[in-house]
Amino acid sequence: MRLQQNNGRELQMKELIKKIKQKKELENVEDKYVLSIAKKILEQNDKLKRAVQEKRIRSKEYKEVIKKAREKLRLEYGMFSEGLEEREEILKDIKHAKEKKELINKLFLTHQPTKERISIYPFIYQKIFKTTGKPKAILDLGCGMNPVSYPYMKVKATYYASELNKNDCEFLENYFKIMKIKGRAFALDLKNPNLLKKIPFVDICFLFKVLDTIEKKGHKLAEEIIKTVKSKWRIVSFATHKLGGKPMKHSYRGWLERMLERLGYEYKIIKERNEIFYLIKKN
Ligand SMILES: C[S@@+](CC[C@H](N)C(=O)[O-])C[C@H]1O[C@@H](n2cnc3c(N)ncnc32)[C@H](O)[C@@H]1O
Would you tell me which CATH number, out of the four given (3.40.50.880, 3.40.50.150, 3.10.20.30, 3.40.50.720), belongs to the domain 111-282? Predict the structure, then answer.
């Protein structure tokens, strides 16, 4: 009897996980991770728990579980506007500190992609710039916390950073000011690539872990962005691990390689444990 009950519960959760993951940007998240998020939501609310147990998949409550789980997953990986108070506190400390490196690392910890990149910041830019040359103007699209890594670049460059929300841009502009970086941060929705035409020509454009976040279906948007951006080099990166830790089956992005060949762009790959970088240049 108990075994049957357990099997039934497992099936309910499997079905719930499947439904939560029915969004392109979430399909690579590990089941185990989605399960842990869903369990937490159900533990906090009996009504929602009952709806799942009774398999009322069309009920308002069941839908709410799915919505809440997706929100949580997106926040963890996608959106930048998180941990706002904490990052403001750290920024204040940076302003007054003589030794800023530890505090900069603390800022990286407030956003998942920079947190995952901490171990490679000390060398990744040198590896990239060995191929591209040292840039004098940098554009970082869907930049998240990445502009904070400027000191690791060891260049003297103008930094253009774009994010989705104004709040995030204000934070980055304050950082630039405190760190005496010649830079600007501005709100730009990458779903409208035409806006990229207004940005001045740069030597290098970073699109770190952003294409997977903004594309829901297919790769038309990625193609538009890659074609429209005015830059000598485009550095496009992707995760090689699923949210939750397991390596992806395919960390190379075949679709991108085929697209670049079709468009006549040259590329070179740098593969690190957590992230794969495509260094792209028009022939
Ligand atoms: C996975 S994070 C990568 C952040 C950063 N590039 C990095 O790798 O450290 C994706 C970023 O894209 C931003 N983003 C999401 N949708 C966007 C959109 N429509 N336009 C511009 N940025 C967007 C998010 O706010 C988030 O900071």
Answer: 3.40.50.150
